[in-house]
What does this fold into?
Amino acid sequence: MYFSLPYYVSKPGMAKELAPIITVENGYKEQGNFMLTTVRMGRANIYSYLEAKLRKYEEIYPIDTILDKQETEEEYNVRQLQLMAASKLNAIDVAYRKAGLPVHYKYKGIYVIQVYPGMPADGVLKTGDRIFKIDGQRFSSSAQFIKYLEAKHAGDQVKITYSRKKTVKTVSLTLKTFKEDPKRAGIGIALVDDKQIIVEPKVKVKTDDIGGPSAGLMFSLEIYNQLTKEDLTKGYNIAGTGTIDIDGTVGPIGGIEQKIVAADKAGAELFFAPNEKGSKDSNYRIAVKTARDIKTKMKIIPIDTFDQAVDYLEKLSPKK
It folds into this structure.
């Protein structure tokens, strides 16, 4: 039996082709591949800890840099899956709008992705709960949900109606001020929208148990490529990483070194890395350094927006 240590170990994961994961109804085929890249992350035991100390592209992280205060591993995993779900929505939105197609939403409520210790929701709500009513009212966006609570004061009571594993419950919570911001009161949760995106043609994105928001850019490129006649892959194996915002901004991620190693092993020829507007310690700069170190022929491309990635691929000469 191996006892867990108060650390996490991350190591290179895989580069996974997106065409089998993403299906746009009657979408166009591609000659090459877009690939998402992953990092393998797990709780350290004495053996994995020592291995990580010896191996160049394995990293050790103290537990409090991965889990939030009093957050369980189960809550962390649920939070990562919710972040992945939000990333998929953004990717679909960005790709369809770029293709000139309409995007509509059906708002269903909010998902709790974190509960803050010592606040009213602590011990009552859990990560993964779906809140769909406050004081019997439904809202059409999370912004309205937040606005409703912001009009309340410490000591005010609200009735929260939520679902957990198909069971619906209503609880009363008394608002409390935040230690970090005594002018604000709340119930103490972090949230993401629970909404259904409605697009034509329909799209399916099957990610199973892959968590986190870091595949957003590559999702959006694969979806857009299936929507448009011109094949952006031009026959290349293209890997990459980066979050995607609703406006198409590409954001940084963790584990860029391990993702470069994973992409190189999978035979990627191009790799899109978040440029972070050229900052000195950007994902892109670290990726270039890692690529040199492992002597890969893979080309690293700095990206700040989805449009930049599309522009680069449109100008790329087809693979001979």
About this structure: The first strand starts at residue 7 and ends at 17. The helical segments are 46-54, 73-98, 142-150, 216-227, 256-265, 283-293, 306-315. The chain has two domains: 7-67+202-315, 105-196. Residues 73-98 form the longest helix (26 residues).
